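Troubleshooting entry. The earlier prediction with calcium ion gave an output that would not parse, so I re-checked the input for stray whitespace and re-submitted. Clean input:
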Amino acid sequence: MERLNFKKIIVTIFCLTVLLHAQNEVCFEIEENPNAGDPAFQCFSKYINVLDCFEVYAQQNISDEKVLHVAAVAAELLDNDEDGVVDDEALFNELQFQQALMPVFTYDGNSCMDEFEDHYNGDGVSAVLFRNEIDPAQPGHWGDDATVKRFYTQSIMLVMYQFIQIYLIFPQTLQSCLMLWI
Ligand SMILES: [Ca+2]
């Protein structure tokens, strides 16, 4: 039940919104897609593993700059003190457990997105990004860069999904926990 410290996770996520810097200095390298043989992932050629709990998959024609920006935003939000460890252990465990990932497509409804939707059977995706939604020069700026918003959507929805699953199985236990939080 410790993994479901939901209130703490939500508070942490919104606090980090305030702390997000205009630019970050996290360094990543783009790797080859480690799951290129999986039909759901075969159209992605760029890959970054962020802090062992969040993966970024991108199509070949997404610029390296944009792929690195997505990873850097995720890293900065997860590890605001930049010590290489996710600041919130509960959130780390949840993202890792769900095998959270962010697919980056060139545009909505393209063939890669169709393949992904047809073959992906996991629970680690709650949001996607498109090429024209990413602007490394204006991180988080409304109308220009949706990376921050999509990452929050992803994190919150994954935690909510787990929250609801537990509620369906152990409703009384969860209600007791909620009473303690109030
Ligand atoms: Ca940290």
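This one parsed fine. Helices lie at 6-19, 64-78, 89-98, 111-119, 147-169, 171-181.
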